[in-house]
Amino acid sequence: MRVFLDANILFSAAKSDGAIRQLLRNLILAKHTLVADSYVQLEASRNIAAKADAQAVRDLDTLLNTVEVSAVQFTQSSPALQAAALWLPEKDRPVLLAAMALACDALVTGDSTHFGPGYGKYFEGVIVCSPRHLAELV
Questions:
Q1: What are the C-alpha distances in Å from 38 to residues 33, 57, 74, 111?
Q2: Fold of 2-137
Q3: Which residues of the chain have pLDDT under 70?
Q4: Which of 35, 58, 60, 93 is at 20 to 30 A from 21, Cα to Cα?
């Protein structure tokens, strides 16, 4: 399974050795592919630098070495992909667009405010999941 990681997942996994980091470890051990793009990588890096300590910055770098990071940002895509993401606020659309464009099976995000209405639903083949839901799926 190809799992796209939202910036808040990267942030949480880097900031503490808790449930999110363990979920990512389990995904890696089970041979799933962790995926991100430069859009979420930059957001996670910016937030870690602003809100966490130097160890968290190092932990994010270590984590990103286990993630397939696309250099392309998917702020624009085909009309079909754009239409599939219209339910999201504009700033969150590139996350779902990237997951779809990178042929991911799942998008995992802790942002229940914006992505919550899409939890458990498929958009162009990508299921949007909370961390708990993803853990149950795999």
A1: 16, 16, 9, 18
A2: Rossmann fold (3.40.50)
A3: 75-76
A4: 93
